[in-house]
């Protein structure tokens, strides 16, 4: 679905821009050249994460339960596969970040530079538990990786729970059981939008973000409706649920997720998600979307290195800072292409995961001493 790839590419570019506009001395110097633009990136660029949440939910529904029933024979194995796929490029990028942070720490006196990691911190990061256990993050934005894994496991549990409780296989399930997983996702998404997402103490858990993720799952199932009246009723239900949550407590992140879900619903209904409706001129954005996860992971160490370099150059001025920011983005894309080609695009294996974990652990120990 190239349109979704393009949406991920654009959203990831905004997130990278958000971090570029907030961290290090370069944005402070370049601010005077375009204050409104940098203010928007710094304040609202983070909303692009909602696009990823909705699309992730949409894709999860399409792969786990396209007809509303779980199509996974071994759920635990599927969760472990998801973990392996997520952490392979994640561990590689974390290793780079730990090494770069150690190199720039003497030259970049900024709070954004992570401190020397402890063994417990490295292990917690490897199991995506750093936020739940209260450890300082080794890279910016990687909280999303842990949340994505939690959301996937929660979604799989919800759609598989009715079959697990009844012991019936999906092939013999009756019509009512096909609606029960959808109803569970709808109920938890509504609870997240109305309750959990308003509690900042839950922002390290999937429950806080399941509203946006659930909207994506529901949109996929609504799009499978053959009758226009059924599709229309589903869209009205999403609108009422989203509008009701916003009426209780306005949140820009939820508004962004709702708009994203509705746009995907229209695109799905109009068959715009198929490759046949994709212009060749937009292929670069599609390619950026395919490696958006690698870009999301690797751009922070590039940001640290470029900030350290530009901060110690003379003369120092707004245009040099702006050039440094643009160069940082370009180098981040290049680094992401390498990470995608050599790690993310390759089949994940437990041997590879253990090797990358060992490399991260050794790197952390070396830089800490």
Short description:
The chain is an all-alpha fold.
Can you give a write-up of this model?
The protein has 369 residues and is mostly helical. The chain has one domain (2-121, 137-185, 212-368). The protein has 15 helices and no strands. The protein has helices at residues 2-20, 25-30, 35-44, 49-64, 75-104, 119-126, 143-166, 175-194, 206-223, 228-248, 252-269, 283-290, 292-311, 318-344, 350-368. α7 (143-166) packs across α9 (206-223).
| Total number of beta strands | 0
Provide the structure class.
mainly alpha
* Stretches with pLDDT under 50, minimum 5 residues: 168-173
Distance between the termini: 47 Å
Q: What is the H/E string?
A: HHHHHHHHHHHHHHH
Work out the oligomeric state of the chains in this entry: single chain
Helix tally? Answer: 15
Beta-strand residue percentage: under 5%
Give the averaged pLDDT, no decimals: 87
Count of discrete domains: 1
For the biggest sheet, the summary is: none
| Alpha-carbon Rg, integer | 21 Å
Specify the overall morphology: globular
